[in-house]
Amino acid sequence: MKKWPCRLLPLLAFPLLFAGCTTAEIGRSVSDVGLSGAGGVIGYKVSNGDPAAAAGGALAGYLVSKTVQSSQDRSLKDAEKAGYERALNQAVKQQYWIIQNQQKSLSPDGARDPRLVPVVIPETKINGVTIKAHVEYLRVEL
């Protein structure tokens, strides 16, 4: 005599299939309508035809639908945020290694041996002080 749960099971499963369609409004609407309808039918059948129980069941189905959608929206936003942060970290690492490789290519091994280049400074007079001619050595790296 109680075959209605078996008949109701496909009705309950159908809206749950569309509950995951968070990217399209049609999936949200189907989920809302389907779970509200299923909740109304369950409330009606369980209460032996009480309209208030049917309305309560429909409300419960709608709330379940919105809770599932909210949870999926939150997890989608968290995943997007984590992906953005990972990509940003990867970009920073890439920039670091680009700079490291550029610095290595500018100075191959052994090419940075410093040389001292002599520069002759002539005799000069600054504020009445005479500085004799001398040689200064500048360090040059090639």
Q: How would you portray this structure in words?
A:
The strands form 2 sheets. Strands 1-4 form a two-stranded antiparallel sheet. The longest helix has 56 residues, at 51-106. A hairpin with a 2-residue loop joins β2 (124-126) and β3 (129-131). The chain is 65% helix and 15% strand. It has one domain (4-106). It has 142 residues and is an alpha+beta fold. It has helices at residues 4-18, 25-46, 51-106, and strands at residues 114-121, 124-126, 129-131, 134-141.
Helix and strand arrangement:
Layout (H helix, E strand, L loop, with lengths): L3 H15 L6 H22 L4 H56 L7 E8 L2 E3 L2 E3 L2 E8 L1
Antiparallel strand pairs: 1-4, 2-3
Query: Order of strands in the sheet with the most strands?
Result: 1-4
Percent strand: 15-25%
**What is the helical fraction, as a range of percent?**
55-70%
Rg over CA atoms: 39 Å
Shape, per Cα inertia axes = rod-shaped
- The chain-level mean pLDDT equals 81
Biggest pleated sheet: 2 strands, antiparallel
Low-confidence stretches: none
Distance between the termini: 96 Å
Question: Which structural class best describes the helix and strand composition?
Answer: alpha+beta
Number of strands: 4
Number of domains: 1
Write down the secondary-structure element order: HHHEEEE
Count of helical stretches: 3
Short summary of the structure?
The protein contains three helices and four strands, in the order αααββββ. It is of the alpha+beta class.
Search tags:
alpha+beta, 4 strands, 65% helix, two-stranded antiparallel ribbon, rod-shaped, 142 residues, two-stranded antiparallel sheet, 3 helices
